[in-house]
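Below is a filled-in request sheet from our internal design queue. Each sheet records the structural input a requester submitted and the sequence that came back. We keep these sheets so that new team members can see what a complete request looks like end to end.

REQUESTER: design group, bay 2
PRIORITY: normal
MODE: inverse folding
CHAIN LENGTH: 266
BACKBONE (tokenized):
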């Protein structure tokens, strides 16, 4: 491409019509971190903070074409995947992704409202084709349990699950502890150098879109040249702030706010 070089990151994920998660949350996060956001949309969802009313997967040709289009023009500093939906999409993304830039995998399986966002038979393809290419995988507790083949109910389980997912080929795993009880929110990073535990404030409300925002922040910081551990600490601080200033919607959930002053709460 011509002109001044821009720092860019690309999200491969589903569209959230409610604007709080998915592609929309990723773009807001990239923008807040001064990274030019590119997108590959895998699915269109009809949803709000309370429910997913419908999901429509895009044809594989559309997913591949979007990846090819952005690769042909942009120097992409990092990729992230969110909702991939089915095994065919997982394989298509694995085949089309270039190898040069780091990949963050948010293994989106089920929405906050309980709607399945990844077919059960696609997990094996995720494990076989994408996780071995990942710089960082960011499962929550239920997702970590599926990928690691075990129950994850405490910090020791989180560490063991992280090690098992690391053995699948990822270079680092962040097991998110937001589902654990307690007054602190604990995440565990497992990489080839060991295990790190980071805790932060637990807010007295649930938030829509926090997982998408966190993984997008990781991708943005990697695109800006940070190491994996540097990106983890920076993204952890960023998501804590974004949750702290979450805005209240008409439903029970608040909506993560990566843009800060750009959104006015009620």
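RETURNED SEQUENCE:
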């Amino acid at each position: 491409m011509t002109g001044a070089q821009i720092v860019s990151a690309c999200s491969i994920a589903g569209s959230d019509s409610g604007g709080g998660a998915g592609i929309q949350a990723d773009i807001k996060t990239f923008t807040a971190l001064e990274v030019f956001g590119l997108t590959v949309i895998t699915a269109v969802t009809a949803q709000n903070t309370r429910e997913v009313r419908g999901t429509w997967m895009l044809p594989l040709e559309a997913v591949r074409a979007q990846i090819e289009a952005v690769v042909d023009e942009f120097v992409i500093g990092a990729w992230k995947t969110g909702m991939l939906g089915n095994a065919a999409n997982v394989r298509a993304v694995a085949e089309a992704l270039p190898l040069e830039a780091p990949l963050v995998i948010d293994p989106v399986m089920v929405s906050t409202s309980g709607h399945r966002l990844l077919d059960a038979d696609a997990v094996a393809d995720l494990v076989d084709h994408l996780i071995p290419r990942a710089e960082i995988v960011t499962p929550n507790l239920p997702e970590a349990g599926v990928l690691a083949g075990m129950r994850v109910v405490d910090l020791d389980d989180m560490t063991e699950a992280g090690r098992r997912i690391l053995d699948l080929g990822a270079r680092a795993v962040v097991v998110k502890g937001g589902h654990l009880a307690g007054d602190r929110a604990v995440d565990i990073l497992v990489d080839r150098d060991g295990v790190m535990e980071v805790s932060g404030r637990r807010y007295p409300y649930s938030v829509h879109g926090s997982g998408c925002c966190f993984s997008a922040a990781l991708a943005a910081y990697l695109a800006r040249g940070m190491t994996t551990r540097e990106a983890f600490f920076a993204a952890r601080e960023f998501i804590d702030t974004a949750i702290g200033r979450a805005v209240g919607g008409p439903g029970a959930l608040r909506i993560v706010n990566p843009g800060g002053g750009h959104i006015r709460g009620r």
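SHEET NOTES:
- The chain is about 35% helix and 25% strand.
- The domain at 8-260 is CATH 3.40.1190.20 (UDP-N-acetylmuramoyl-L-alanine:D-glutamate ligase).
FILED BY: M.R.
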